[in-house]
Write a structure and sequence with these properties.
Length: about 80
């Protein structure tokens, strides 16, 4: 298992990243994306896991649950 951190400059960069990121990756994004209209909707519908970067403990909990689920369901 590994972590891929993508620092992109614009929403259009996401389309390129989708093409090169392995199929079994689990995308995690900042919660603020939910409020970007169509982009937020598309992210939510595509199954992105959102974390609230302003609440550190909650963000860590979400990432820990995601890691546990990935191990349990063998999504590595």
């Amino acid at each position: 298992p590994f972590v891929i951190v993508c620092n992109h400059q614009a929403s259009l960069d996401l389309m390129g990243m989708v093409e090169v990121i392995p199929e079994r990756c689990v995308p995690i994004a900042k919660r603020e994306l939910l409020y970007l209209g169509t982009v937020g909707w598309a992210c939510w519908l595509s199954g992105i896991i959102f974390i609230d970067r302003h609440h550190r403990d909650t963000a860590i909990e979400v990432i820990s649950r995601t890691a546990s689920t990935m191990r349990r369901e063998n999504v590595r």
